[in-house]
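Fold this sequence, please.
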Amino acid sequence: MTAAPEALPRLAAASRTVAPATYDCILLAGFGGPEGQDDVIPYLRNVTAGRGVPDERLEEVSHHYRHFGGVSPINQQNRELKAALEAEISSRDLGLPVYWGNRFWEPYFDDALKELHADGHRRVLVLVTTAFSSYSGCRAYREDLAAALSRTGLEGEIVLDKVRQYFDHPGFVEPNVTAVREGLRALVASGDDAAPHVMFATHSIPSAAADVSGPREALPDGTPVPTGGGEDWYAGGGWYVAQQRAVSALVMDRVADEFPDVPWTLVFQSRSGDPSVPWLEPDINLAIEALPADTSGLVISPIGFVSDHMEVAWDLDNEALETCEERGLTMVRVPTVGVDPAFVSGLIDLVEERHVAAAGDAPRERVALTELGPWQDVCPTDCCLGRAAKPTVASCD
């Protein structure tokens, strides 16, 4: 059990939401991935830059990509998401062009910023392809965008603001509810529904990083966090875990009308790095092995991801499936939100919370489906710290 930090400043709720503005365009910010065998090692060098990882070690961990011809599905998935966003924007007559840039592979942030600047855009709203609060899921994107502005000489030329984390927005939640419901129905159709279990899978991160995820000085509505510690405030994992537990519980509550009393677990996957460093647990494969003997079928929901990229395709569709087969357990892996129309529409709803066509226009109402949200627009300077504080963009006070 960890006590709440005593010395962090208390922020008022008003400091968490920024006034709407008129934006010129949208930047879809992705992670990036290799698109051929020759790209794999350069891509992994980018991801591990500054950590002193030799190419020999990178080659050892490249087998996931080699298995799929060196091609990660993530870039094509983001191309499809970009096209879907453009269609939704057109249907609403918003007139906002969409640009796309990645942290670790082409098109890089630098390229996207130079392109949109050359096209005359100066105020940019950023959509990040991660829904939850953590260093890797939020702050790292803002740091990398700040670094890209510096490298390209565009500091002061472009304003970059990021939309809030959207883990409990209806556009993210509803497709996940539908997916889990359909997964349980698939178990019924297979005859393996006598004692089903649902696992919500998300990316494991170092426990220390999870513990400092999200705003630690106050609750999302501005209420100060109790300083006495204890389970009422925090039971480990920071806001990263709290958000995912809240959404998973919400999904199960929503399917309970048809599938009451189905047990569920939040599990973690894709850990890497020094094995002596504690990461979030339980690992999905160990959790599958530990399921009660009478479990008849397993639905796996990749709740922590927005697309069926490499870590979903390998860690769930290969490794978790093998573990289930070894147990003789029927497994149904349901899809991520991807380009589900509700998700795409929800992302543009988030845009319309911040973007107004003209001064005086009313922004879209901010909505959330858990008590944790709606999440903040403004991040505290000490929110989701990584190795060291670095300059950020997109509304960090």
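Residues 1-14, 227-235 have pLDDT under 50 and may be disordered. The CA atoms of residues 77 and 307 lie 7 Å apart.
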